[in-house]
Specification:
alpha/beta; Rossmann fold; NADPH-cytochrome p450 Reductase, Chain A, domain 3; six-stranded parallel sheet; binds NADPH dihydro-nicotinamide-adenine-dinucleotide phosphate
């Protein structure tokens, strides 16, 4: 079993016990009771709904553990599962991730919807448990898992416990579980994830690697309101590989000045010792490397509120929309200043979230760049409470790491965003702004492999002269006859022009590509652009096929479920 921390493992162990398993260990070598292998007289189904592959990984790990305990199990993905199978199921473990603002991943959409109705029938014969994967920086953390839990219960199923929620850092926790185990043998071994990285250039067992920055270029021209960096990192001798569509996790450090300001405002000392994952470190180091201070999630706000005792703040916690608005762009220093927070160094560390890496869509293909990885990163800077706030990782990469220095990275596979297996299949790519990143990777791959399928890119940004990211490369692909391009520069005329307008202007041809089997890809802004582009496709289908909007929407859902409409949105 990979990727779960000890506490989560014990939870899951408890679940498995509840399901009739014995023993509590899900990690080989963890210092918990040895599992007793007792053949069970029932079958377990581990049903997963994955977006980028994490739920699948967890599901497979759970099935492997079940096997260790003598329980026969099958692992099945939601699109392959038939609703009527629930009628005969007795033991079900659902592993599902949550997408964006609490929506199910595409793979889970249909079952999620079906379970909301009565078609599944009475499930009183069913024992179930739910493991939910999510990101606690979203207000509806693990919502899809919660939905599955509630819906199965409503249909009569017997829940064997609360929903187990796994946050984005669940993989990092694995490193500390492993370290703790190894510590039994090597008391002197350091245990932080950074120190477990070998400096000779080979990635650690957890895929962590210190990659040298080879190049950094601001892609925006003079006068632009944007700051978008093209970064080239070396993966030389790391052994790391990736595919177009994958992302790169970057482990940034917090800013020195921000950490100092927090410590000073709280009247604490930089060298106060605090415990982080059983290790004693100085408060300053803990805040620089181990804890998130540039954003505050709802669970963290709830804990912080406990130290403040402000009635209005307590009331705010229950108001969904207002709390989201309050947290927008708020950092820890803002909160400390607003509420005159008093807290001890250890309480602070225990309250804050572990600093998660930031994931960027990879902008290169190894077919083209070999042992390098390229990123397209928009620097986030804004003023709030009369103070400049810097995006943690984007500004770390933009300002704080120099060419020649190293950054800690890890490849994050994303099986939910992949070129078609058949190289003849046409692709339509919609990627305004930094959303162009994975399409640069796609184009490098398709060009290097002489793929015969047609490629069409829709790109947009503010101004043609300053914001046409990778213009030279895009023009080169077009002149080689490899690429059809349509651009939408939103602020070069009075009326806003966006990529979806270009799609609609080309409705007939877009529809022809679609009916000839084209795959559609959307990358970039999740809140506005992705929804508008989806709506544009619905309208195009309705208009071109001469059907109602509802029928067009159903058609698009079909296309999505067939894996032909893939999104990488943030
Ligand atoms: P943007 O998505 O902000 O802008 C690209 C183009 O899309 C602009 O021309 C913009 O026009 C246009 N646009 C605005 N609204 C829509 C819409 N509804 N439909 C279609 N196009 C639209 O590009 P960025 O690359 O700067 O940002 C992409 C996303 O990434 C954003 O969500 C941003 O918040 C996020 N981001 C996150 C970062 C991070 O570190 N987490 C870093 C940088 C960006 P106009 O602006 O003229 O309206």
């Amino acid at each position: 079993m990979k990727d779960l921390d000890r506490e989560q493992i014990l939870w899951l162990g408890g679940y498995l016990s509840g399901l009739g398993f014995s023993g509590a260990s899900l990690v080989q070598g963890a210092s918990v009771a040895e599992p007793q292998v007792v053949a069970a007289d029932f079958k377990l189904t581990v049903l997963y709904g994955s977006h980028s592959g994490n739920s699948k990984l967890v599901a497979e790990g759970l099935a492997a553990e079940a096997k260790n305990r003598g329980v026969e199990s099958r692992v099945i993905s939601m699109p392959d599962y038939k609703l009527k199978e629930l009628k005969t199921e007795t033991h079900l473990l659902v592993v599902v991730s949550t997408h964006g603002e609490g929506e199910p991943p595409v793979a889970a959409e249909e079952l999620h919807k079906l379970l909301a109705g009565k078609r599944a029938g009475d499930l009183s014969h069913l024992n179930f448990a739910v493991v939910a994967l999510g990101d606690s920086s979203y207000i509806n953390f693990c919502q899809t898992g919660i939905d599955f839990h509630q819906r199965l219960q409503t249909l009569g199923g017997k829940a064997l416990g609360e929903v187990v929620k796994l946050d984005v850092d669940f993989k990092d926790s694995l490193a500390s579980v492993k370290s703790k185990t190894l510590d039994l043998f090597h008391a002197a071994t350091a245990t932080t994830s950074t120190s477990s990285v070998k400096s000779e250039g080979t990635a650690s067992a957890d895929g962590l690697f210190e990659a040298e920055v080879l190049e950094r270029i601001n892609l925006n021209g003079r006068g632009s309101a944007k700051e978008t960096y093209h970064l080239e990192l070396s993966l030389e001798d790391s052994g790391l590989t990736y595919q177009p569509g994958d992302a790169l996790e970057v482990f940034a450090k917090n800013e020195d000045v921000l950490v100092d300001a927090i410590i000073s405002k709280l009247a604490l000392q930089a060298n106060d010792l605090v415990k982080v994952d059983e290790n004693e470190v100085a408060l300053k180091e803990a805040l620089l490397i181990h804890r998130e201070i540039t954003t505050i999630t709802l669970p963290v706000l709830t804990k912080l509120a406990g130290f403040v005792g402000d009635e209005a703040l307590t009331l705010l916690l229950d108001k969904r929309e207002e709390v989201v608005e309050y947290l927008e762009g708020l950092d820890l220093l803002d909160f400390i200043q607003q509420y005159n927070l008093t807290i001890s160094a250890q309480q602070l560390i225990d309250t804050l979230r572990k600093l998660p890496p930031r994931a960027y869509s990879i902008a290169s293909s190894q077919q083209e760049v070999d042992e390098e990885v390229h990123l397209t990163v928009g620097a986030v800077r804004y003023t709030k409470n009369e103070r400049l706030h810097n995006g943690l990782c984007s500004v770390y990469l933009a300002d704080r790491v120099e060419v020649g220095e190293k950054v800690l990275v890890r490849v994050k596979t994303n099986d939910g965003f992949r070129l078609p297996q058949d190289e003849k299949v046409p692709v339509i790519m919609i990627g305004p702004g930094t959303g162009i990143a994975p399409f640069r990777a796609f184009l490098q791959e398709r060009a290097a492999t002489n793929a015969s399928g047609k490629n069409w890119l829709f790109f947009g940004d503010q101004h043609f002269t300053s914001d046409f990211l990778y213009q030279t490369e895009v023009v080169k692909y077009r002149s080689l006859g490899l690429l059809k391009v349509d651009v939408a520069f939103s602020r070069d005329q009075n009326e806003k022009v966006y990529v979806q307008h270009r799609l609609k202007e080309n409705a007939k041809e877009v529809y022809e590509w679609l009916t000839s089997g084209a795959y559609l890809y959307v990358c970039g802004d999740r809140k506005r652009m992705a929804a508008d582009v989806k709506q544009a496709f619905v309208e195009i289908i309705a208009q071109q096929a001469g059907v109602s909007l509802e029928a067009a929407e159903a058609k698009l859902t079909e296309i999505r479920q067939a894996g032909r409409y893939q999104e990488d949105v943030y």
